[in-house]
Design a protein that fits this description.
This protein has about 775 residues and is of the alpha+beta class. The protein contains 19 helices and 40 strands.
Length: about 775
């Protein structure tokens, strides 16, 4: 039950009769007149807490949440991103009875670092934004002892007005905790009348006042700097350790974080469980004197949590807090009056009915108009473009240019500034490195991160992401489906389970949208993205367990004395988190040995429309301008389930025979192969089929496609199993000892006399991918 926001949307699509005309709040949708459900025994809490909670095994559970901190990061990149990451850490601490944060993720969408045009007034340069948010996320997360194991960078000029700063955290908790005889299930929150309302952690200040309302408006010249909160990860680390100890001792009954709205939201939310609350905000510890009562109530200052402490355990709770150096403010008690009563020095300053507080806001009514007749165009004619040069003469240069694209090029310069090892659980890191610590060390990209959270178990957790905003220019429906598919493919690459009811694979969605209110077109984009997300999640039987939405990602201001408005492209980040049955069988993307057979796994129905290739060849500064008709790759979800079930270990017996697996995404098949060659410095001999458009085959993008390798000895058995199960594949080459990537058209002559249409040294490929100098 995922509510985008409190709205009823009237949707009209003249080109489709299969989509219902009215979506009531987007709580649920129907397919063929029946409500679609995804019952999973491992789902413990979905969209009812600070994070989604899933069972890991019979003893433990994990939780996942991803937040955005866009507006604060636009004004103060370091402070905005730091509060974003420590804020989502607190979501994990306040989830259920409290979970230990065990990994962080981050995804940044910014304008290109080499942006050279005039900046609008008050906007910071993208390079400054990027470095600020990088430092903020690293300082807020790693310095409180949490590893960063997955992330992404997306560049687009339209993120100049508002960068998108996604911060995610995963947590781990026992499925039952508390004192003997008083255990609660991890997903339970109980609040009884008479329980004390205790605020712990950081003190209240003016920073963060109206942070929530500020984030719900377009950025402009009047946006207040004081809305950006000031974070302190050391204070939060002390509070986190104290809370987990208090949880195991059963010293509190419920917990939540002081996020948006400060005490007004944390106490107001928990009051629903008891039926009311009464607090005196003059009892709250502050950073300095002089704060007004309303400021004490709504300030979002960091590192604070609110707890329901049974009166009989208050003394033990306070004693433990004092020993651990954590400050406690006893503000009042939960009641059953049906009201939220706020006092200051004993005098009433607010008194609201809980019913009004939670349900009193009238619902928006929005109109959505989708003007396209064909929802997903498959052909676009660019008749004004020049004829494209031949594949034989231009493919090698195209591959190097694609590898140097900011959206594809190495992010090692950024990744190496994070800590992936703290807590000692990391199995697969963002980069795989050969000969680490030596002068010969070389690295290549991995598809997802994996950790081993329990010393007593070989099972693991894997987290990956999918994001593809450039497809929004074609259809947000397709963009959403691509994001889901990429996230799932990424976790499958490193070893996620898939295909059985007990296979644990959950999704988290984060919508970041230009303001849809009053704009039927932007609202229609949102509706179509929701339907694309729904269809993909149902097709893969992957439930959504948490999410966050940001709907005001616009900038309105001045540039050179003229008004300017910049809106982000409709952007959906999908995060996938999955269980791995045995971390010893984890896979990485790098090719492992000379003589290994290289396969395309999947139908490889790829297209150039909406690809990085299209972005490159239509750039007026590029000499390769020009292709005529462009096609978009489309999904086939039934085929996807067949492929993913084999990779995920449900069908067949030989998925462990794959020595590497890498998903085909930005830049297409040849880019994926080049990335798999980087770490070990091997070469590859490849065949480009004669029955396919070579540009599409080499650089097209789409769905459900991987690059896999196996040993030559295992190849016959693998191909036989794929044939039996109907898993599409194509053998396209072998790993070579010579450090060159060579491509032949059709069949290479047995005597080796054929001339390759592409021949690039691995040093050339690595140099292009590292894009040295660009990031400095």
């Amino acid at each position: 039950k995922h509510k985008i926001f409190n709205a009823k949307i009237h949707y009209h699509d003249p080109g489709s009769s299969s989509i219902p005309p009215v979506i009531d709040g987007l709580f649920k949708t129907t397919i063929a007149g029946t409500t679609a459900e995804l019952p999973k025994s491992w789902l413990l809490s979905v969209f009812s807490d600070n994070a989604g909670i899933c069972a890991f095994d019979e003893e433990d559970a994990f939780c996942i949440k991803v937040e955005t901190h866009n507006s604060p990061s636009a004004l103060d990149p370091y402070g905005g991103a730091l509060t974003g990451i420590v804020g989502v850490n607190r979501d994990i601490l306040g989830c259920g009875l409290g979970a230990k944060p065990i990994f962080n993720t981050n995804v940044f969408c910014v304008a290109p670092p080499d942006y050279s045009a005039q900046l609008p007034d008050r906007l910071l340069h993208p390079r400054r934004i990027l470095e600020g948010v990088r430092r903020g996320v690293e300082h807020g997360g790693n310095k409180s002892g949490i590893p960063t194991i997955n992330g992404a960078l997306v560049f687009d000029d339209r993120y100049l007005g508002k960068p998108l700063i996604y911060c995610g955290t995963g947590g781990f908790m026992p499925r039952r905790s508390g004192a003997a005889g008083e255990e609660q299930r991890c997903e339970e929150k109980n609040v009884l009348p008479g329980d004390r309302i205790c605020m712990i952690g950081g003190r209240i200040g003016k920073d963060g006042i109206h942070g929530a309302t500020f984030s719900s408006l377009a950025l402009d010249n009047q946006s207040p700097m004081t809305a950006v909160q000031l974070g302190d990860p050391i204070t939060q680390k002390r509070a986190a350790d104290f809370l987990l100890e208090a949880r195991d001792l059963g010293l509190y009954r419920a917990i939540t974080d002081n996020g948006a709205g400060g005490l007004s939201s944390s106490v107001g939310e928990m009051a629903r469980l008891s039926g009311g609350a009464q607090i005196d905000v003059s009892l709250a510890k502050t950073k300095y004197p002089g704060l007004k009562p309303y400021e004490l109530v709504v300030s979002e200052s960091q590192e604070r949590m609110t707890l329901a402490v049974p009166p009989g355990k208050l003394e033990a709770f306070n004693s433990l807090a004092e020993r651990r150096g954590v400050e406690v403010s006893d503000l009042g008690e939960f009641t059953k009056t049906g009201r939220f009563e706020i006092n200051y020095e004993g005098k009433a300053v607010a008194d609201l009915a809980l019913e009004f507080l939670h349900d009193g806001v009238p619902r928006l009514e929005l109109k959505a108009e989708w003007g396209a007749v064909a929802k997903i165009p498959t052909i676009v004619e660019n008749s004004a473009l020049k004829p494209f040069e031949s594949f034989e003469s231009g493919s090698d240069r195209m591959l190097l240019n694609l590898l140097a694209r900011p959206n594809i090029a190495s992010k090692e310069w950024l990744i190496r500034q994070y800590d992936h090892e703290v807590q000692g659980m990391s199995v697969v890191k963002p980069l795989h490195t050969v000969s680490p610590g030596t002068l010969n060390a070389m690295s290549g990209p991995n598809d997802a991160g994996m950790i081993k959270p329990k010393p007593s178990s070989d099972a693991g957790l894997v987290v990956g992401c999918g994001i593809n905003p450039k497809l929004s220019d074609i259809d947000p429906f397709l963009m959403a489906q691509s994001s889901v598919d990429e996230a799932v493919r990424n976790v499958l690459c490193v070893g996620a389970e898939f295909g059985l009811p007990e296979s644990v694979l959950a999704l988290v969605d984060n919508f970041c949208w230009p303001d849809p209110v009053g704009d039927p077109v932007k609202t229609a984009w949102l509706v179509r993205a929701c339907y694309g997300l729904r269809d993909a999640a149902l097709a893969l039987s992957a439930p959504l367990v948490s999410g966050k939405d940001s709907m005001k990602n616009d900038f309105r201001g001045q540039r050179g004395g003229e008004p300017v408005e910049i809106s982000v492209p409709p952007t959906l980040l999908m995060t996938a988190v999955a269980r791995v049955s045995d971390v010893k069988l984890a896979r990485t993307a790098d090719f492992k040995a000379v003589g290994d057979v290289i396969y395309i796994l999947g139908k490889a129905d790829l297209g150039l429309l909406g690809s990085e290739f299209q972005s490159l060849v239509t750039d007026p500064l590029d000499t390769l301008a020009g292709l005529g008709p462009l096609r978009v790759g489309l999904p086939s979800w039934r085929l996807a389930r067949r492929i993913y079930s084999w990779i995920g270990g449900t069908t067949g017996r030989l998925n462990h025979k794959m020595k590497s697996l890498h998903d085909v995404s930005d830049g297409g098949i040849f880019t994926a192969i080049a990335e798999s060659l980087l770490a070990r410095g091997f070469g590859a001999s490849l065949l480009c089929p004669l029955d396919r458009n070579p540009w599409e085959f080499a650089f097209g993008e789409g769905f459900h496609t991987f690059i896999a390798t196996s040993s030559a000895e295992d190849s016959e058995a693998l191909e036989s199993e794929w044939d039996d199960l109907g898993v599409p594949y194509r053998r396209i080459g072998t790993v070579q000892s010579a450090d060159r990537m060579e491509v032949y058209m059709g069949v290479k002559n047995p005597d080796g006399t054929s001339k390759p249409v592409m021949s690039l040294g691995i040093k050339q490929i690595r140099s292009a991918w590292l894009k040295e100098g660009y990031w400095e």
